[in-house]
Amino acid sequence: MTQISEHERFVGIDVAKKHLDVHLLPEGKSWRIDYTPAGLARLLDQLEKVAPTLIAMEASGGYERACADCLAGAGLAVAVINPRLVRRFSGSLGKLAKTDQIDAAMIARYAAFAKPDTHHTPDRAQAMLMALTTRRRQLVGMIVMEKQRTDPGHAHPAILAGIKRHLRVLEKALAKLEAQIDTLIAGHPLWARMTTALQTVTGVGRQTATALITHLPEIGTLTRRQAAALAGLAPINRDSGTHRGRRFVQGGRQPLKTALYLAALSAANHHPILKTFYQSLKDNGKAPKSALIAVARKLLIILNAIARDTIATP
């Protein structure tokens, strides 16, 4: 086990919908608390007495946000980490059993071992933007499915009118939601300037700019390698001995990765520099999909530089 000094304390929290499982190292103490406002207040009081070096929890589809915001807002160091990293760490220790208490212990042990330096900072505007864009993505998905059901060859006349009514309701809700997103961004000075600046790049529209602001709030403060890694666009080597395997991309923030890939499709056809870059890759034997990923990575590097200049120029 990783050595922890007598002055260090690491806390792992496994987040569920109705409860939180907490594990404290090096004491090895575990307890469960209700995931309610009263429960969070009690947890905060308990952890403030402990003064932990770091509190870690996995990203769990947004369930973790209230807990992370509460603890970080009180000045405690909180890291929201990728669940995949904890699973691999647990597997490397040969821990195959899985319960909420075990998960909390593994998160604490991972925090003590890796000491992740990405600390959570509560931001109400960012949380609202994330919620709105997530809901927009859900509505778009429902609209696509309902449109597919309007195919006369598959939809019975008895239900076709109902599907079309539902479509109109969904489209109206989508328009209202997009107006809310636009208003929120327009009311945030940096986001407003950032959105305008990012859209000066051919292939980047409002939705791509919004995805960048939402899912890569660090944009403009990152190196090109950091930006590519967070977006899941950094190539990973697969070399061993004399073997040189084909490099691939993996992970990343999926909504951001998808938005950049779609923008790359447009940029590869219309952006003067990226179009040439894309064609040269294909001429040199690169598969079209791999070439598009390379375009997406190069596009992100360009956008990160624009964001950096936007931040530096009030």
Architecture overview:
The structure is a single chain. It is built from 12 helices and 7 strands. The protein is globular. It has helices spanning 37-50, 65-73, 83-92, 100-114, 124-148, 157-186, 189-198, 206-215, 224-230, 254-270, 272-283, 288-312; strands at 10-15, 19-25, 29-34, 54-58, 78-81, 239-240, 243-244. The protein starts with 9 loop residues before the first strand and ends with a helix. The relative contact order is 0.08. The model has no long low-confidence stretch (mean pLDDT 88). It has 3 domains: 10-114, 2-Layer Sandwich (Nucleotidyltransferase, domain 5); 123-187; 189-314, no CATH class. It has a 5-stranded mixed beta sheet with strand order 3-2-1-4-5. It is of the alpha/beta class and 314 residues long.
In short:
This protein has 314 residues and is an alpha/beta fold. The chain has twelve helices and seven strands.
**Helical stretch count?**
12
Overall mean pLDDT score?
88
| Biggest sheet architecture | 5 strands, mixed
List the domain count as a whole number: 3
Low-confidence stretches: none
Radius of gyration: 23 Å
Number of strands: 7
**Helical fraction:** 55-70%
The backbone outline, from C-alpha atoms, is globular
- SSE succession: EEEHEHEHHHHHHHEEHHH
Strand arrangement, major sheet: 3-2-1-4-5
Assembly state (oligomeric): single chain
Chain-wise SSE layout:
Layout: E1 10-15, E2 19-25, E3 29-34, H1 37-50, E4 54-58, H2 65-73, E5 78-81, H3 83-92, H4 100-114, H5 124-148, H6 157-186, H7 189-198, H8 206-215, H9 224-230, E6 239-240, E7 243-244, H10 254-270, H11 272-283, H12 288-312
Parallel strand pairs: 1-4, 4-5
Antiparallel strand pairs: 1-2, 2-3, 6-7
Helix pairs in contact: 5-6, 5-8, 7-8, 7-12, 8-10, 10-11, 10-12, 11-12
